[in-house]
Amino acid sequence: MADQTPESPLTQAERHARALDVMSTLRAGRVQDAQKGAENTERTWGAIGTFACDFAMGEIWARPQLARHDRSLVVIAVLTALGGQPMELRVHTRGALNHGATREEVEEVLVHLSVYVGFPRAIAAFREVQEVFKSLDGDTPQPPHQPAERKDDDQRRRDGLDVLRTIQGWTDDVDDATVTSELDAVLGRFAPLAVNYVHGEVWSRPQLSRRDRSLITAAASAVLGRDEDLRVHVKSALNHGATRDEIEEAFGQLLPYAGWPVGCGALRVAHEVFGEIDALGGR
Prior knowledge:
Layout: H1 12-26, H2 31-45, H3 47-61, H4 68-82, H5 86-98, H6 103-117, H7 119-137, H8 153-168, H9 176-187, H10 191-203, H11 210-223, H12 227-239, H13 244-252, H14 254-258, H15 260-279
Helix pairs in contact: 1-2, 1-3, 2-3, 4-5, 4-6, 4-7, 4-11, 5-7, 6-7, 6-11, 8-10, 9-10, 11-12, 12-15, 13-15
């Protein structure tokens, strides 16, 4: 299990310095510019502004155990799952690009989340993301978006079964009926759609790694209060190469954006899953 030893507390000066560093990378600017931004945030929002800078940025974002690229994708997923966060989505879309995410990756977070939060929220977030891209491009017209690959039914099913095997950590010698048995029991007539569409078309797209898909799905599941799904995607993230530390840090990122009850609940589920794996002698 990940090390649970409490970390030494930071001084106020250390928290603030780390916050300014994060704000400078989010804005692709200088620390001096970040200081002005922090001062303006406090003038506008008072104590909320102070805590948004020194706690959210200085104590959460600045932690080294998860790359800022990954934190940005998690935050975009959280904001999309919450819905109705246009200003924050624009800020963090720019931040994701400044942290090394590509436009394709940012858009793919929303394509992926359309499965988990529904098309209305995903499309609303997509509109905000496109506004950011337009503002960055100025007078340069954006290229038209390309449609998804249209697969035949056999390919959809093959790809879906492959994804399900990696999510569940099963080898290729596990038969297809076993792979789909849980979906069949829960979804009945809709189970083939879960295999062919959710996993065969969306999850199998190459624009995001399966590790990243697992982390953003877990984050969205936590926001939506879906503990059963969360357990699946904690295991999925491990099977797709995320470390326990990275999973915990992704859930720590929920604390300032979805609130402490949501973040603490996700951490609780993760620790339960880790304990169950350890009890079985797993990694």
